[in-house]
């Protein structure tokens, strides 16, 4: 995405010069916490149905009421009950939480108690608050890892903000080293995140990456875990279960097999 203003204008002709300048200044491989916090403020203060209609108009679509969504009354439909922000990990969640706590609308009670982190190390008793409804006049802000993509459903989320990043286990079979890398999400991840908005009412999802990146750079789906993790445990399990054939033969029969070199190094 390292393009100049003329190239950005040619790629995104429907957008304004201000948008082109903002894209030029943006680091597309990092999270802009100031931008995310401004989006959260916008989501908290705007009316959901108007935002959904605006987004549909921008995309050239008709904003339709989903059959499974009950018609909300006007008072309830006005503002968002909850905003869900997807972030890669605990460090990024903490950074955004600190950014939001510097803003008056979030750093005073009762709003401050409803800025909620959601990741794998949050105790179960604290996770339960994510599913509770905030009191009238307060918007619940959920700062989540991709645990909120499929593992949990928060029914009152009206806005989703997707930073387009996630943490993924990677393994280098030559160096025999594992790492937890910050990587772009896949198109399948983005679709799952978009689906968290508007479960029982109108909703809006904002993805912080360009349409070009979505269509041409991002992977269609994550690589299978068996292709990204050490295989020693899998090799031992295959041996213990006495599957017919060698470990390499069993791995080769998987629907999406790991690289032969990775299997060979795990066995050796």
From TrEMBL:
<dbReference type="GO" id="GO:0003723">
    <property type="term" value="F:RNA binding"/>
</dbReference>
<protein>
    <recommendedName>
        <fullName>Helicase C-terminal domain-containing protein</fullName>
    </recommendedName>
</protein>
<feature type="domain" description="Helicase C-terminal">
    <location>
        <begin position="74"/>
        <end position="242"/>
    </location>
</feature>
<dbReference type="InterPro" id="IPR001650">
    <property type="entry name" value="Helicase_C-like"/>
</dbReference>
<dbReference type="Pfam" id="PF00271">
    <property type="entry name" value="Helicase_C"/>
</dbReference>
<dbReference type="InterPro" id="IPR027417">
    <property type="entry name" value="P-loop_NTPase"/>
</dbReference>
<feature type="region of interest" description="Disordered">
    <location>
        <begin position="177"/>
        <end position="197"/>
    </location>
</feature>
<dbReference type="GO" id="GO:0004386">
    <property type="term" value="F:helicase activity"/>
</dbReference>
């Amino acid at each position: 995405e390292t393009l100049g203003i003329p190239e950005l204008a040619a790629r995104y002709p429907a957008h304004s010069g201000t948008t082109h300048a903002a894209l030029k200044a943006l680091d597309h491989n990092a999270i802009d916490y100031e931008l995310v916090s401004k989006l959260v403020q916008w989501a908290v203060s705007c009316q959901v149905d108007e935002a959904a209609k605006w987004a549909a108009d921008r995309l050239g679509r008709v904003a339709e009421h989903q059959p499974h969504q009950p018609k909300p009354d006007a008072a309830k439909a006005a503002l968002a009950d909850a905003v869900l922000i997807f972030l890669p990990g605990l460090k990024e969640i903490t950074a955004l939480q600190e950014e939001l706590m510097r803003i008056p609308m979030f750093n005073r009670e009762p709003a401050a108690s409803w800025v909620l982190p959601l990741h794998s190390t949050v105790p179960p008793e604290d996770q339960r608050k994510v599913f509770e409804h905030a009191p009238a006049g307060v918007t619940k802000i959920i700062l989540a890892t991709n645990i909120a993509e499929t593992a949990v459903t928060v029914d009152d989320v009206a806005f989703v903000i997707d930073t387009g990043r996630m943490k993924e286990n990677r393994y280098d079979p030559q160096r025999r080293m594992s790492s937890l890398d910050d990587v772009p999400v896949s198109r399948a991840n983005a679709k799952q995140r978009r689906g968290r908005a508007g479960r029982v009412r109108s909703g809006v999802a904002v993805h912080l990456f360009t349409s070009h990146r979505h269509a041409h750079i991002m992977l269609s789906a994550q690589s299978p875990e068996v292709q990204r993790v050490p295989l020693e445990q899998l090799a031992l399990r295959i041996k213990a279960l006495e599957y017919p054939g060698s470990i390499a033969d069993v791995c080769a029969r998987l629907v999406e097999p790991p690289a032969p070199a990775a299997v060979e190094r795990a066995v050796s």
